[in-house]
Amino acid sequence: MENIYVFGHRKPDTDSICAAIAMANYINITSKDVKAIPCALSAINNETKYVLDHFNIEVPKYLNDVKVQIRDLSYHKKFFVDRYESIKYAYDLMNNISASGIPLVDKANKNRLMGLITLKGIAREMIESDRRHLRTSYSNIIDTINGREILKYDDEIEGKVTTATYKSTTFLSDVDLSKDDILVVGDRHSILEYAVNTGVKLIILIGDSQIKEDHLQIAKQNKVNIIGTSLGSFDVSNLLVLANYVEVINELSNPVTFKDSDYLTDFHIVAKREKHTNYPVINNKGECLGLIEYTRAEELSRKKVVLVDHNEKDQSAEGIEEAQIVEIIDHHKLGTIATNSPINFRNMSVGSTCTIIYNLYRERGIEFDDKIAGLMLSAILSDTLLLKSPTATSIDVDAVVNLSRRLGIDYYKFGVEMFKAGSSLDGKNADEVIYQDFKKFTSENIKIGIGQIFTTNYEEVSKDLDKYVYELNKMENSEGYGISCLFVTDIIRNGSYVLYNSSSRDILSEAFNIDVYEGAFLADVVSRKKQIISAIIEVLKKSKD
């Protein structure tokens, strides 16, 4: 089942978080082939925490970014070879998928990466290795030469390979066998008798040869391993080198690796520098997950996302341009988000994203539980300031009335308690308060930053007015904001106190048609979207004209 990540903007407010949860629930009900996961791009505020706690709902999963990661690529997952498999086994694995390398792991140690095996390494082993020495397992030899078990006493076989190609008389007189010898022989009974009496490590009977019963009994007494095969001596001699443990050709014991959480952009940088083809993929514990080939790095699956309560690139998740946006639900002006193909885009001039989602449920006749109802009610009350904001519409009012009636809640009392819980600034410095709900805009090449908080006690801010002004001026110098403001919206008085950087005074005075000073109260100004940013942009455009 494919995941779809549903999230709001980077500085999530109650509408943003509740919309993500409600929309994910909607998708999971209406689409059985995907799993929608509600996410938060940063920590939730106190108001949202109050709401989630009140309705007993978990905080959404934190989502750092939606950049393409190694785990999103079409790499060879679970593709590796254990150190004790044969070289031929590793070659067959590579050949099956036309790969030129395969990670070497220690399966007994949770697939800990040990190195990288390549086709070049196998070719080098075939040409340059000492073919007379074999160190492997009994089962590897059987698999490599298509053999059959006759006698088995040892799991591991190590010794010097000798092929009986001489005349029997010459062999018996000139070849000294020992307990460490591996003998490749046919139905040459005098040599077989010599071998079993010596107690060699292993006899490989070629060409489907048979061993006499009395020789077999001696072999049992001396615990001689015996394997039979239909292959001839030439084929067996050539293949035995491939029966060796694959770890003997581990030419890259410390290969360049990537974690499955690494980004595709970083992979390209490193791969272009290293100029290798194959790179093992590991997790944070150093366990091998598979192999990624540089030539296949563009075969990827972009993260699928649904955006709620925003459609501005600067307000969205890091790497949003690398994701596949499948749907947007928003109540703001059209922003800078672009898509490569048509998507579902629901944009309405209402006070809350959750108002739109509530109507999606109603239009489809989809049932939702009281928890989702509580979240949507809370979000609408939050974004419309208890329906007092100029952004509030009859559609918002209808949603609030229906949801509060269903829940048996006095929405005004509940909303006041919600705002009180969220308006406390205890433990927060001026910088944290400004960025608590901060949005960026650009108009006439001027960078604008507008923070907004809601309170029932403006004195919490006014007692540290100088600190807030200092931080706003610092933003102008360090981050290039031509206009940086904090609007402290008083829920009870239904207006906002404005704090600003020095360069903003004249613009704000004209925008709100008063002689602005730090901490000036703007009656009935409560909406950043409809009253604040629109008034500022209008002045900027007028001044340019």
Structure description:
By secondary structure, this protein is α/β, with parallel strands linked by helices. The chain folds into four domains: 2-67 and 303-421, inorganic pyrophosphatase (n-terminal core) (Alpha-Beta Complex); 71-127 and 248-296, Roll (CBS-domain), CATH 3.10.580.10; 130-243, Udp-n-acetylmuramoylalanyl-d-glutamate--2,6- Diaminopimelate Ligase, Chain: A, domain 1, CATH 3.40.1390; 430-544, Diaminopimelate Epimerase, Chain A, domain 1. Helices cover 37% and strands 23% of the residues. It has 19 helices and 24 strands. The strands form five sheets. A six-stranded parallel sheet has the order 3-2-1-17-18-19. Strand 22 (483-490) and strand 23 form a beta hairpin. Helix 1 (14-30) packs parallel to helix 11 and helix 18 (505-512) crosses helix 19. The protein is elongated, with a radius of gyration of 37 Å. 42% of the residues are buried. The model has no long low-confidence stretch (mean pLDDT 93).
SSE blueprint:
Elements: E1 2-7, H1 14-30, E2 34-40, H2 46-54, E3 61-62, E4 76-77, E5 81-82, H3 87-97, E6 101-106, E7 112-118, H4 119-128, E8 133-137, H5 138-144, E9 148-151, E10 156-163, H6 168-174, E11 181-185, H7 189-198, E12 202-205, H8 213-221, E13 225-228, H9 233-240, E14 258-259, H10 264-274, E15 278-282, E16 288-293, E17 304-308, E18 324-330, E19 344-347, H11 353-364, H12 370-383, H13 394-407, H14 411-423, H15 430-434, E20 438-443, E21 446-455, H16 459-462, H17 465-479, E22 483-490, E23 495-500, H18 505-512, E24 520-523, H19 528-544
Parallel strand pairs: 1-2, 1-17, 2-3, 5-6, 10-11, 11-12, 12-13, 14-15, 17-18, 18-19, 21-22
Antiparallel strand pairs: 4-16, 6-7, 8-10, 9-13, 15-16, 20-21, 22-23, 23-24
